[in-house]
Amino acid sequence: MDKNTKILIAGAGLGGLATAACLLQAGYDVEVYEQASKLGEIGAGIQLSAPAVKVLHNLGLENALKAVSVKPQAFEFRLYNTGEVLHKVPLAKTHEESHGAPYYHVHRSDLHQILANKVLELGPNSVHLNSEATGFTENNQNAFLHLADGRKVKGDILIGADGIKSAIRDQIVGFTPPDFTGQVAWRATVDVKKLPANFMEKIVAIWCGPKKHAVVYYLRSGELLNFVGCVENEKWQNESWTVKADWQELKDDFAGWNDEIQTIIDNIDKDQCYRWSMNNRVPIKNWRTNKAVVMGDAAHPTLPYMASGAVMAIEDAAVLMRSLNTNEDVIEALDMFQRNRVDRTGRIVTESTEHGDLYHLSNKEEFEAGFGKKNIAKERAEWLYSYDPLTVELI
Ligand SMILES: Cc1cc2nc3c(=O)[nH]c(=O)nc-3n(C[C@H](O)[C@H](O)[C@H](O)COP(=O)(O)OP(=O)(O)OC[C@H]3O[C@@H](n4cnc5c(N)ncnc54)[C@H](O)[C@@H]3O)c2cc1C
To answer: If DSSP codes are grouped into helix, strand and coil, which group holds residue 46?
Structure first.
């Protein structure tokens, strides 16, 4: 694709910024339109596996990433009451040696900042805030991004990176109604200084129990402990990261769980508990028109049970850049991107849902049988982590 190609991106989340950075680095003319009035991210921890870390390293972000990350030793799936280990997935050295890049935990706002700095270094005027996309039009030559304040911005290609409630996806495939899973995610962080010394090893502890599970890991060089608690709860249907809920309800949700979980919950700031209802959306196969395409959560929103939503968005960024580099024609480029991403992302979305069932069984015997049948360590090594978006053959 001609490097003068003007590429419009709606949304400056992790996916939109990773895409902007990859495309600017490749020499394209990129403009990003973000609805918020300032660049930033909310939320807490994010896990990044080798496929995403390789893309970030390729952007020259190795040192910046290393400075704010934690390298966990392993995933440890534990029984909710006794803490007995049900299954282990080695990370750290094993992950790095097998897949060519580290497994990292990073605070979302740190990762967002690192990506934003890169985008602004490569394209100082490329990000436009207060710019809410409402839809687009296109003709044979151009795509026009429509903004809520009446502006219509002209480009050659439009990329919808506007997240789970994407206006661009709604226009391409029609409104995809969220399918409430009946599960909510609590999220909070704990200042490690408040916890007993050497509280937990540097691992990802996934506590599995009846109708709920909790994921615990360190952030910011071990200064913070990240807690996510996924609970079956039919009543709460607010799909927003920014809505707080009552600490006592969190405490009640995990009543009877292991002392380690009680210590974590007891040390969470009582007015800093957030709760988000988790919706599923059936994977869609058509992500594009002739001039516009969606990526990241706008294309393949997923439940977080394989910690791969942002990873997929960052993989998308690299494959999209390579598809544009490989083709002269916009339709062929967008088609190549879609063709090479639909199956992998669809598999991750489907398997993430299945993981939710495995984590919420009733008792020790069921968990032992469930983990006995599903060797997560082997499966993830074989296909999830071994993918390299920078070198995988594009068909
Ligand atoms: C509890 C939980 C834990 C998770 N843990 C992990 C993990 O460990 N690892 C992992 O890889 N993933 C994880 N994820 C998933 C990950 O957070 C998402 O997949 C990722 O943030 C998607 O990035 P995105 O850029 O596509 O969308 P978003 O992050 O939603 O960004 C969309 C951006 O577009 C902007 N926007 C929205 N609408 C418009 C509009 N109309 N016009 C202009 N701008 C707009 C938004 O303001 C935002 O900046 C988790 C998710 C949850 C819920």
So the answer is: strand
From 8, 9, 14, give the residue whose CB has the most ligand 1 atoms within 8 Å, as the site to mutate. Answer: 14
> Tokens 């927003």 correspond to what residue?
240
Note the pLDDT tens digit of each residue in 188-202: 999 999 999 999 999
Query: How far apart, in whole angstroms, are the C-alpha atoms of residue 326 and residue 334?
Result: 11
Catalytic residue among 28, 80, 104, 217: 217
Q: Provide DSSP, 179-236.
A: EEEEEEEEEEEEEGGGSPTT-S-SSEEEEEETTEEEEEEEEGGGTEEEEEEEEE-SS-
Residue ranges lining ligand 1, Cβ < 6 Å:
10-16, 33-36, 46-47, 132-133, 161-164, 167, 185, 187, 228, 276, 296-298, 304, 307-311, 313
Place of tokens 């680095």: 25
Indicate the pTM of the whole model.
0.96
In ligand 1, the atom with minimum distance to the C-alpha of 312 is: 11
- Tell me what percent of the residues of the chain surpass a pLDDT of 70: 98
Q: Which of 349, 322, 339, 381 is nearest to 55 (CA)?
A: 322
Distance CA 148, CA 162 (A): 14
pLDDT band, residue 241 (cuts 50/70/90): low
- Could you give the angle at which helices 309-326 and 50-58 cross, rounded to 10 degrees? 50
- Count Cα neighbours of 220 within 13 Å in the Cβ-side half-sphere: 15
